[in-house]
Design brief:
The protein is of the alpha/beta class and about 325 residues long. Helices cover about 25% and strands about 25% of the residues. Strands 1, 2, 5, 6, 7, 8 and 19 form a 7-stranded mixed beta sheet that branches. It has a 5-stranded parallel beta sheet with strand order 10-17-11-12-13.
Length: about 325
């Protein structure tokens, strides 16, 4: 993603449409609003490209017969958005004032932007176990991204924590790099799709520790050396030797900046009207993983980005009418 696309603004500049987030949802919203001559400004935030930038092999995005790379797809999507007129700013929205019209956005740089309409597409972030030892070894054997850090454990033994699609996908990815992968799950059955489970259980170098959870990450100056696993069914603790631990227990929506601006549910996800991307505030729309807690796929995020753009275009037309 070219630095030339970065936009410098001065405090209190005004935009017709501001899109917060530059993942599949935000960039698709950018493509559609730009083609509608709405001159959108996309604020890229903490993770330009969204979660797809930490996903290497992508085989379920429609339109590609062969496996593609997540970062490449996001680079192409951003290029497409820019080519049709969207602009990308590399900054972070720290607060959104939805009580004023136009809406007011406060940025980490100290700048402020006002906007007639806003699309929230900030996605979600990895969830951690919450252990002191996990934080102690974060970056020294503890990671939440197998595709980012798996290469560093080539030929070594690692563990993946979780039982959903993400955990199984990460275990399968690591099995092609590492000597051995242990999947640690607190229950006696996985939540992942059946086809994913079958792939996992067929892998000779993957074993599953059922009814176990991480009680402590063990290590020394060299980094992680093992895990102490507690039994969830009343058994004794067990220690396994690993060089890396990948946490894959879900995500939290990146919506803290919008608390009080739009209605969130008890998990922090933005609530949208059924069948649309309208939030609790007229003129503010939401798309992607900051809204969707069920599907969480790049293609559904992109679809919601399209919906948000169309909803925004219609709403702005109604205001002008």
């Amino acid at each position: 993603m070219s630095d030339s696309a970065a936009v410098n603004t001065k405090p209190s500049t005004h935009e017709q449409v501001v899109i917060i987030g530059a993942g599949a949802a935000g960039l698709t919203a950018g493509i559609y609003t730009a083609r509608a001559n709405l001159a959108p400004l996309i604020i890229a935030g903490l993770q330009p490209g969204g979660q797809m930038t930490i996903t290497t092999d992508v085989e379920n995005y429609p339109g590609f017969a062969e496996v593609i790379q997540g970062p490449w797809l996001m680079t192409e999507m951003q290029g497409q958005a820019e080519n049709v007129g969207a602009r990308v700013m590399y900054d972070i929205v720290t607060a959104l004032d939805s009580a004023s019209r136009p809406f007011r956005l406060m940025l980490d740089s100290g700048n402020e932007i006002t906007a007639d309409a806003v699309i929230l597409a900030t996605g979600a972030q990895a969830r951690w176990l919450g252990l002191d030892s996990e934080m102690q070894f974060n970056g020294r054997g503890v990671s939440a991204c197998a595709t980012c850090d798996g290469f560093f454990y080539k030929g070594r033994d690692v563990a993946v924590i979780g039982g959903g699609n993400t955990a199984v996908e990460e275990a399968l990815y690591l099995a092609n790099i590492c000597n051995h992968v242990t999947l640690v799950h607190r229950r006696d059955s996985l939540r992942a799709e059946q086809i994913m489970q079958e792939r996992l259980l067929k892998k000779a170098n993957i074993t599953v520790e059922w009814n176990r959870q991480v009680a402590e990450v063990l290590g020394d100056d060299s980094g992680v050396t093992g895990l102490r696993l507690a039994a969830t069914n009343g058994g004794d603790d067990k220690v396994i030797a690993v060089h890396g631990m990948f946490v894959a227990i879900g995500h939290d929506p990146a919506t803290a900046a919008f608390a009080g601006a739009v209605t969130l549910d008890d998990e922090g996800y933005i609530i949208a009207h059924p069948g649309s991307t309208h939030t609790s505030v007229n003129g503010i729309f939401a798309a992607g993983d900051c809204v969707d807690k069920i599907y969480r796929q790049a293609v559904t995020a992109a679809g919601m980005g399209c919906m948000a753009a169309l909803d925004t275009e219609r709403w702005l037309g109604e205001q002008q009418g």
